[in-house]
Amino acid sequence: MSLNEAPITPQVEEALSIVKRGCDELLVESEFAGKLARSYATGKPLRIKLGLDPTAPDIHLGHTVVLNKMRQLQDLGHTVIFLIGDFTSMIGDPSGRNATRPPLTAEQIQENAKTYYAQASLVLDPSRTEIRYNSEWCDALGARGLIQLASRYTVARMMEREDFTRRFKGGIPISVHEFLYPLMQGYDSVELKADLELGGTDQKFNLLVGRELQKEYGQEPQCILTMPLLEGTDGVDKMSKSKGNYIGITEPADSMFGKLMSISDTLMWKYYELLSFRSMQEIADLERRVREGLNPREAKVALAQEIVARFHSRQAAEGALASFEARFRDGAIPDDMPEVAVGAAPLGILKVLREAGLAASGAEAQRNVEQGGVRVDGARIEDKSLQLEAGTYVIQVGKRKFARVTLTG
């Protein structure tokens, strides 16, 4: 059945609205509607691809934005392909970077990949997930195949990439192997015969390469769904372990709950849209209630409990709330507090207090710790030599001084 033969039924329209929720862009929407219609008419599920390079061993909530979308597509009856880019990781994705990204060694990739799928399975349904590694076909391609693949894409098209153009104009080196990354990612779509590929907004160029290569190989081109990049707990940069603003999906329940409670009231609504499984109508109703006087903290508690329950249990979420409230029983956390970045971790607590403006001097910082007046994420600090690792913390001095402090890695 050709792409436009099947009717666009109410079932198709409902599925399309689910797919589009929270997305940045769906290309080409009319084509994807046709793919959905044909799928329902023939009973043949679409093949949905998500590729992740195991550049770090852990998955955080930022990664789950696209994983949640994959789960929704699974629930609609489609085949989800979780592609681990063990080959492309050795090239290094240059997307959005101003310098060459150091490639990982095979040993690093293998170590990181061990936990990737296990953690992704906390979101995806493992029984309905096809797991693949792109080394399956990339290793077999060989030098001859790689040259043939490279002949199907021009340098002019490659230089349309914003980050490549910016680096070229700025005299910043671009290694030839970086051109191979989007080619290899695109070739993955050819091998997998993908109908739809998902990625963050920073991946749009790479996803489009896949679409063009499928045309070159005589396949029906995939559609593309880009999802927004989720800001981390600092509310500024995208969630990243290197930025220290991440919330890992395997973190302890108390830590996860506390970090979610630390995000700003404004950012909370983006987290709701991209991470919550509540309907958009429920979220809109909750946002209206906040505008009408409901304390935003109650909405944030509901979000934190939902996320913690998803990755731990409902009991763990209740316990995290009780623990959080107990830690702050001596003084309520203000809805608004200064947000400061104080440099690279690890950093001693006394220096953190000074640089965050919570103590005028080292002597005052030391005195506050010795007198039991300093809390980090609700826990009283007694060790004046404490070193804080990368991350975002709510730091309290006395009953009235608060700051949300971020230390980078």
From TrEMBL:
EC code(s) of this entry: 6.1.1.1
Catalysed conversion reaction: tRNA(Tyr) + L-tyrosine + ATP = L-tyrosyl-tRNA(Tyr) + AMP + diphosphate + H(+)
Family: Belongs to the class-I aminoacyl-tRNA synthetase family. TyrS type 2 subfamily.
Motif ('HIGH' region) on chain: 54-63
Gene Ontology terms: biological process: tyrosyl-tRNA aminoacylation
Functional summary from the UniProt entry: Catalyzes the attachment of tyrosine to tRNA(Tyr) in a two-step reaction: tyrosine is first activated by ATP to form Tyr-AMP and then transferred to the acceptor end of tRNA(Tyr).
Alphabetical list of InterPro entries matching this protein: aa-tRNA-synth_I_CS, aa-tRNA-synth_Ic, Rossmann-like_a/b/a_fold, S4_RNA-bd, S4_RNA-bd_sf, Tyr-tRNA-ligase, Tyr-tRNA-ligase_bac-type, Tyr-tRNA-ligase_bac_2
One Pfam family it belongs to: S4
Entry keyword annotation includes Ligase: yes
Classification via SUPFAM superfamilies: Alpha-L RNA-binding motif, Nucleotidylyl transferase
Keywords per UniProt: Aminoacyl-tRNA synthetase, ATP-binding, Cytoplasm, Ligase, Nucleotide-binding, Protein biosynthesis, RNA-binding
Gene this protein is translated from: tyrS
Motif ('KMSKS' region): 238-242
Amino-acid positions noted as binding ATP in the UniProt annotation, renumbered to this chain: 241
Protein name: Tyrosine--tRNA ligase
GO cellular component assignments: cytosol
CDD domains linked to this entry: S4 (cd00165), TyrRS_core (cd00805)
Main subcellular location: cytoplasm
GO molecular function, one term: tyrosine-tRNA ligase activity
Record domain RNA-binding S4: where: 347-408
Signal peptide as annotated in the record: none
Compartments, as annotated in UniProt: Cytoplasm
